[in-house]
Each structure stands twice: as C-alpha cells, then as structure tokens.
Design goal:
Layout: E1 18-23, E2 29-34, E3 37-39, E4 44-48, H1 53-61, E5 64-70, E6 77-88, H2 92-106, E7 119-129, H3 148-159, H4 164-179, E8 183-189, E9 195-202, E10 212-214, H5 218-226, E11 230-232, H6 241-245, H7 253-256, E12 269-277, E13 280-289, H8 297-323, E14 344-350, E15 355-358, E16 361-364, H9 366-382, E17 386-388, H10 389-399, H11 407-420, E18 426-431, E19 434-438, E20 444-449
Parallel strand pairs: 14-20
Antiparallel strand pairs: 1-2, 1-5, 3-4, 4-7, 5-6, 6-7, 8-9, 8-13, 9-10, 11-12, 12-13, 14-15, 15-16, 17-19, 18-19
Helix pairs in contact: 2-5, 3-4, 3-8, 4-8, 9-11
Length: 450
C-alpha cells in the first residue's frame, strides 16, 4: 500500500515529538527532536525553524533530510525522506505555524519569548513505515462521529435563540452533545479590552461566572489577538495555563474581588475558538478534554461553525433588546427573591472599580457593577423596580463615555452572579429589553458609596 501524508494525520497533532536526521557536507550525521511538523498539502510538510545551529547548517549544506513521525493513537512510526524547498517568514502558512507554536509556548508562560522567526518547507519524496515486532493496535480515541445532520440541527438551535442567556446555554450544551466534551467556558471582552470575563461554563466544580483572564494570556489571549483558533493537543507536555494563574486566582473573593476561574485539572487537550462578527471578537469559547489530540480537523470545523452561529445569535439578541420599545412591565410576579433575615439590605459600591458588595459579599464589578448601582439608585430615589435596556444604556453612556454596546452580556453576568451568591436582590427579565429588580417585601436597601 502506498502511503500518503493524508494517512498520517494523527502524526501532526504534536502529541509525540518528531525526529529530524540531517547530514553535514562530509556525511557526519546529526539527530534532534522537532517541536512542530505541519502537513502543507499532499506533497509538502513544513517545520518550525527552531533548529540547533548544527541542524540548520546541515540542511543548508545537504537539503535531503529524514524525518520520523509517530502516530499518537497506534504508536506506529513513519520514515519520511524530504528535501528542503524554501524558508518562509510571512503568509498564511507561516502565521498558522506561528500560532501553533505560540499556543504551546503560552502554556509555559513564554508566548512572548518563543516567537517563530521562519518556517522551512520540504517536499516529501518518500514515505515508509518502520517495521515493528509488535502488531500495532489503534487505541480508542473516544471521539464521537460528528454527523452533518446533527451539526446543522445544533446550528439552528443556537440561531433561533433571542435571549443572550439562551444562546450561551445552547452553545455549551451543543458542545457537550456533539463533541462529548464535558468542560467548556465562554468569556466576553470587557470594555477596556484588557481582560475577558467568564459569562458561562459547563462541567466545572465552580462555575467561575465573573472570573477574569488577561486578554494577552494563554490560548484565550491568543484566540483574541489573532482572531483564529488556538489549541494544544497534549497538555502533558506543557504546564497548564491554569497552574500559572492559581497563585493570583480568587481564593477569598470578598477580599480580593477576584473570582476563581473554572479549571479542569485532568485536561489533556484545549482549544480556544473566537466568536467573530464583522472581524470583531465578541466572545471566546474554551473547550477542554481529558483525551489527547481530542480536537482534530473535524472537531475544529464543527466548533468553528457552532461559534459562528453563536456570535450571530449574540449580536441578534443584543440588537433585539436594544430596539425593544419601553412598555409597562407586567403586574404579575416573575420570581421570588431570596429571603433575608434582616429588614435592611446593605449595599456598598466602590467608585474606583464599580465593585458592589451586598451584605458584605462581593458580587460584581466593572460595567455589571455600574448597572446594579444605577438600578439601586433609581430604586432608592424613585421607588422603581422595573427598567429597560434602553434607559440603562443611555444612563451608562452618560456616566461612562467609553461604554460599548454589550449591555446584554453584562446583564447576563449580573443576573447569574446575583443568583449564584444567593443575595436577597435578584434580576429577572419581564420581556424583550425589560428587567425587574427583585427586592424582598418589607426590606429596605441601604446603599453606601466608597
């Protein structure tokens, strides 16, 4: 059987390091490991040019090179005879390899250190399998087969949602159903662009709603800065990004105002998918799996389609809420707020970061905190409990000139944090673009600004 590069797809996931063998002009051999081998097309591969000086010199002196690639599922080894063609320092192929390297480097905190200077392209002249005394057995990948019918149904289920929370929930559930991935989270950029905030999660011990990650950190930051997919296929080769942030993560959030990020210690594969509309990142989907090489080409394509449909639906939900006419709120009760042992609900608002504490418990900060502050002030001054997205947007824009139009995302964050903290204050939707602040009967709100 004639082997093709397409038959070696499991060798290009970066799970098992590849080997490069070169020879000097006088025939002296040299062998070293490779960090990245990428299939370009049916006849070419590309290598990240991070060779030791000896390897690089040998390639220039003798362009015929031998590679050993290993199938990460069967352990089968393949011998490739390749010939150097040219070096690349720009273009889609170079950028793709650079992102792959950056994704791996981000896991050890060296994304800004291990930068790709060039990539070398080689023409494949022969492919052979290395004989083994053992009969290889294909290990179970655990990957479900993603059918087009199921994928189309998932896309439709996301795009028909008109509420931001429902869009997020449908995206997460479809990731679970289609890819059998039990851990995923969705993060949205804050107004400054300096961080991303968790607005939805699935499968973690703590939801992490409201937790933050810097927009230049790890796979998430790479997906934001590039607007492209970023992934790591075997995290056992790298220190997980979560390990790097544990020292600065939440702990006592009432003191630090930092919420612990959702973390899956058993993750072997990670992939970050940007949700894009008009080339703008509106959110990032981070999906994790306990399986190595869990996200191949089919999984990437499926996640990209789910993310694209969710991005459109999120923009649609924002537009619908923004354009909704202000109507009288319904008289019927929509929910019952949490009971309180006190007649007074104590709220403290800190001006420097708009953080809000309810009965000494940290709830939220930033835009979401400013929204809660505004509603509580209207409640205090006008005895109101019903509000519209439109008036909130105008009020925030007047106070915060840099405010961007992502109100629905912030309202979702605020609503979920109030529920998660089980505060006596809750937020409920009463219609499209309509909200109600739920305050226990007979309770008064005492608000203080620091």
């Amino acid at each position: 059987m004639t082997l093709r590069l397409a038959d070696l797809s499991a060798c290009f996931d970066g799970v098992i390091p590849s080997i490069i063998a070169t020879a000097a002009a006088d025939g002296t051999p040299n062998v070293s490991y490779l960090s990245h081998v990428v299939r370009v097309d049916d006849d070419h591969v590309a290598l990240s040019n991070q060779f030791f000086a000896k390897t690089a010199a040998n390639i220039r002196a003798n362009p015929l090179v031998t590679l050993i690639l290993v199938d990460c599922f069967t352990g089968e080894e393949y011998l490739l005879d390749v010939r150097f063609v040219r070096s690349l320092d720009s273009g889609p192929l170079f950028e793709g390899i650079a992102r792959h390297l950056a994704a791996s480097s981000a896991q050890i905190g060296m994304a800004n250190v291990m930068k790709l200077k060039s990539a070398d392209m080689f023409r494949v002249e022969a492919i052979g399998m290395i004989p083994s005394p053992l009969v290889p057995t294909r290990s179970e990948t655990g990957k479900p087969i993603i059918g087009l019918t199921a994928l189309a149904a998932a896309v439709r289920s996301i795009e028909r949602q008109e509420d931001m929370g429902a869009v997020i929930e449908q995206l997460l559930q479809n990731v679970r159903r289609l890819l059998d991935c039990r851990h995923a989270q969705i993060l949205a950029p804050d107004t400054t662009g300096g961080s991303l905030i968790t607005i939805g999660s699935l499968g973690y011990d703590n939801s992490g709603i409201g937790s933050e990650v810097a927009s230049n950190e790890g796979l998430i930051g790479l997906a934001v800065s590039s607007g492209k997919i970023a992934k790591v296929s075997d995290m056992s080769r790298f220190r997980r990004f979560g390990d790097a942030i544990k020292a600065t993560d939440g702990g006592d959030e009432d003191r630090s105002r930092n919420i612990t990020r959702p973390s899956f210690d058993g993750a072997r594969s990670q992939i970050a998918i940007p949700l894009l509309t008009n080339n703008e990142v509106v959110a990032v989907l981070l999906t994790e799996s306990e399986r190595p090489a869990a996200f191949g080409a089919d999984e990437e394509a499926a996640l990209e389609m789910l993310a694209a449909s969710a991005a459109r639906a999120m923009r649609g939900a924002e537009s619908l809420a923004a354009s909704a006419r202000q109507e009288p709120a319904p008289d019927h009760a929509v929910a019952t707020p949490c009971a309180t042992d006190s007649d007074v609900i104590r709220v403290v608002h800190h001006r420097f970061d708009d953080s809000v504490f309810v009965d000494d418990a940290y709830v939220v900060k930033g835009i979401a905190g400013a929204i809660l502050r505004q509603m509580l002030e209207w409640h205090r001054d006008q005895r109101r409990i019903d509000f519209s997205n439109r008036e909130l947007r105008l009020a925030l824009a007047a106070r915060m000139p840099d405010f961007k139009d992502n109100l629905e995302t912030r309202l979702l964050l605020l609503r979920r944090r109030l529920d998660e903290k089980e505060t006596p204050l809750r937020l409920a939707k009463t219609g499209r673009g309509q909200l109600r602040l739920l305050v226990p009967d007979l309770a008064s709100v005492e608000m203080r600004h620091d």
